[in-house]
Design brief:
Blueprint lengths: L1 E4 L10 E4 L9 E11 L1 H6 L17 E9 L11 E4 L9 E5 L4 E2 L6 H5 L2 H14 L7 E4 L5 H12 L3 E6 L2 H9 L4 E4 L7 H15 L4 E6 L6 H5 L2 E9 L12 H6 L2 E4 L2 H7 L1 H16 L7 E6 L3 H9 L6 E5 L2
Parallel strand pairs: 8-9, 8-11, 9-10, 11-12, 12-13, 14-15
Antiparallel strand pairs: 1-2, 3-4, 3-6, 3-15, 4-5, 5-7
Helix pairs in contact: 3-4, 3-10, 9-10
Bound molecules: NADP nicotinamide-adenine-dinucleotide phosphate.
The site of NADP nicotinamide-adenine-dinucleotide phosphate has 28 residues, from helix 1, helix 3, helix 4 and helix 9.
């Protein structure tokens, strides 16, 4: 089989399409013929050894896939060859075939494309966990979403609306603001490009405060970090929850006096570890996501697809801050 491999630390241009032996389904495993692999920011980081997981090389990036079961190992029940499935293996998805534990599989609903199926879980499952378990978001509360036209950002807008929140979407361009509006945001604000000096940081805090309103944001969903974090925290409500989701703009430092002044919580979000520690709670979230998808309340926003050989270009585009929604690689 072919796989798009990272053989040395480096950017997307270092990936190469190579031959590997076909995987074999071990005990409790199935082999999935990968049809589509969605790209996420962790793919940008993992090939540069900047992600929290560092797989041994050579490895294929690609954190979430949809495909068809090709063979089934010993001891697997409930699945048959030909079943259409979704999985979030973390890496390895930019390959024609993957051996996966049967417990990692979710059924791709009838009538849904492989591209949409591949683009569902990482973003929405992260976000439902963030908003409900960590953010305790309630109907009628105000949710501020940074990087709101990105993968997890658009998911936060849709889920925020599905849970009855007022959603303020913050993005870096008018085009991204239009995408956030189309996803259901009640209000949008366009921020500048970091780095920010002291005055620009203060001005951004005022911009956030004006957008969320005088009570402040009950929940702030931050998958951006960097110089955006402190101005956003300054717009939080009394007893608000600030969700630390990711750092494409850099890892910020926050003055802790701000948490005292607002009696607010800064909450880390680590969906992969949550799902591993509490699979039942994660499964309940995933079941809810499939229901919301069938009701039309959420839907993956695949804005561009790439050929398998161009998988590196998809990762490069995400790293360059140019993607709206999700990009997906058609593997076979
Ligand atoms: N904690 C978890 O469990 C978990 C799970 C999944 C993903 N994540 C993290 O969430 C973050 C977002 O992931 P994603 O897949 O949604 O990525 P994405 O689609 O690329 O969205 C990230 C957004 O960050 C903003 N941004 C600001 N500065 C940037 C920069 N220098 N480079 C690139 N983007 C920049 C961009 O929005 P604007 O241009 O509008 O600012 C972009 O749309 C990543 O850090 C990822 O690792 C965390």
């Amino acid at each position: 089989m072919k796989a798009l491999l990272s053989k040395a630390i480096g950017g997307p241009e270092t990936l190469s399409l190579d031959d590997l032996p076909d995987p074999v389904a071990g005990k409790g495993q199935v082999v999935v013929a990968v049809k589509a692999c969605a790209i996420n920011f962790p793919d940008v980081l993992i090939i540069e050894d900047k992600y929290q997981f560092k797989p041994a090389r050579p490895f294929a990036p690609g954190g979430e896939i949809a495909g068809v079961i090709e063979s089934i190992g010993e001891g697997v029940s409930g699945w048959t060859v030909g079943d259409r499935v979704i999985a979030v293996p973390g890496h390895g998805g930019l390959a024609e075939k993957m051996a996966l534990g049967a417990g990692q599989l979710f059924r791709l609903p009838e009538g849904r494309s492989f591209e949409d199926g591949a683009a569902l879980l990482l973003t929405y499952a992260t976000t439902i966990h963030a908003l409900l378990d960590r953010g305790r978001l309630k109907e009628g509360q105000t949710l501020l979403v940074l990087g709101a036209a990105g993968g997890v950002g658009l998911a936060a807008i849709e889920l925020g609306k599905a849970f009855g929140a007022r959603v303020v979407a913050a993005v870096s361009s008018e085009e991204k603001a239009a995408a956030a509006k189309a996803a259901g945001a009640d209000e949008t604000l366009v921020y500048g490009r970091a780095p920010f000096d002291k005055d620009a940081s203060k001005a951004l805090a005022e911009q956030f405060k004006a957008a969320v309103g005088p009570k402040g944001a009950d929940v702030i969903y931050d998958p951006v970090g960097g110089d955006y974090a402190e101005p956003a925290l300054r717009s939080i409500a009394w007893e608000g929850r600030y969700l630390v989701v990711g750092f494409p703009a850099g890892i910020p430092k926050l003055p802790l006096n701000l948490t005292l002044l607002k009696s607010c919580d800064v909450c880390g979000v680590f969906w992969g570890a949550f799902a591993a520690r509490d699979p039942q709670a994660n499964q309940a979230h995933v079941d809810r996501l499939f229901r919301l998808w069938s009701e039309g309340k959420i839907a993956p926003k695949v804005t561009e697809t790439f050929a398998f050989a161009d998988g590196g270009k998809a990762i490069a585009k995400l790293g360059a801050r140019e993607v709206i929604g999700k990009v997906v690689v058609r593997v076979s």
